[in-house]
Design a protein that fits this description.
Largest sheet: 7 strands, mixed
Number of helices: 10
Radius of gyration: 19 Å
Mean pLDDT: 93
Order of helices and strands: HEEHEHEEEHHHEHEHHEHEEEEE
Strand content: 25-35%
Shape: globular
């Protein structure tokens, strides 16, 4: 069976504009375009349609902001079964409130009936603040905007029949995720010194492998940025780091690949916007290196793991 990522790379890539499939967004003439979505069945008992509307917008906003874009215009495409029509406005309200939070405009879209659980897709258009097209250099440093792991607790609890206690803080990370707007300011200010950026939505390792495959490099991890509070909880439950990484996703943090000469300056600036940046690795750009186009940790290849819309967690 094809994975989602294999299908994109092997099939869809044959029919789209060259190279646009190799990134999370499409950029042209100063504008950034992104569409994202999911089935309405992708939810939990503590979430309602308002929460799903909010999260759908954030899924699109995350990609735009992580490329240095200012979210501007939004369209929705919704398929909903007749049994949920009385709750449709709740979904729309969640969409509208999330767009309003990012000072964008909700300008319309499409509404369909659905025989299944339904779906939601959000298309966003943003204004690009950084149009520089750079190559990743050997020695560039990989920074993540914040530590990760809270959403892993939700997914781990789900696959374990909800036997892991979830504090309110953890639940809210899934219900109402937020992408820090300050990321745009960072990318705009350090545009010429940031060689690549992407968001973390399907899992940290998935995002890192997207970098190494798209840019033909290796990333050597120096540390795994699991939040200490999460690490303490998972250690008490006997959960290994590999499982935290496997069941991560919807973190909506940003990975920045930055020139080594400005790393400390960039991190100081990020902290001004309430971020807690962490240096997690370094780029190796050597055509003859063992482990080429891989993610390495302590000299070993890290297996690609995370979420795939066809396979589920892999």
């Amino acid at each position: 069976m094809f994975s989602e990522h294999e299908f994109i790379n092997n099939i869809i890539s044959k029919y789209v504009v060259f190279n646009s499939i190799r990134d999370d967004v499409y950029t042209e003439k100063g504008l950034i375009y992104k569409i994202d979505g999911f089935q309405l069945s992708y939810t939990f008992s503590f979430m309602d349609l308002y929460d799903l509307g909010w999260k759908a917008v954030i899924s699109t906003v995350s990609d735009i902001i992580s490329k240095g874009g200012i979210p501007s215009l939004f369209f929705s495409s919704i398929g909903i079964p007749k049994s949920k029509l009385d709750k449709l406005e709740n979904l729309i309200e969640g969409i509208a409130d999330a767009i309003k939070y990012y000072h964008g405009k909700y300008v319309g879209g499409d509404l369909n009936s659905s025989d299944g659980s339904g779906w939601i897709d959000i298309m966003g258009i943003g204004l690009s603040t950084c149009n520089s097209n750079k190559d990743i250099d050997d020695g560039d440093v990989v920074i993540i905007s914040n530590s990760i792991g809270y959403t892993s607790l939700v997914f781990l609890s789900y696959v374990r029949s909800w036997n892991i206690y979830l504090p309110k803080k953890v639940i809210n990370k899934i219900r109402h995720p937020i992408v820090n707007k300050g990321i745009v300011k960072i990318i705009e200010k350090y545009c010429t010194n940031i060689s690549y950026s992407t968001d973390v939505s399907d899992g940290l390792i998935v995002s890192l492998y997207n970098i190494v495959k798209r840019k033909n490099v290796t990333v050597e991890l120096k540390q795994i940025p699991i939040d200490p509070e999460v690490k303490e909880m998972t250690d008490s439950l006997g959960v290994e780091i590999k499982d935290i990484l496997k069941y991560s996703g919807e973190e909506f943090e940003t990975l920045l690949v930055v020139r080594k000469s400005v790393v400390e300056e960039v991190m100081r600036e990020m902290r001004k916007y309430g971020l807690n940046p962490i240096v997690i690795g370094e780029v190796i750009k050597n055509e003859n290196s063992e482990g080429k186009n891989n993610v390495l940790y302590k000299g070993e290849v890290v297996e690609n793991t995370g979420w795939d819309n066809f396979l589920g967690w892999f």
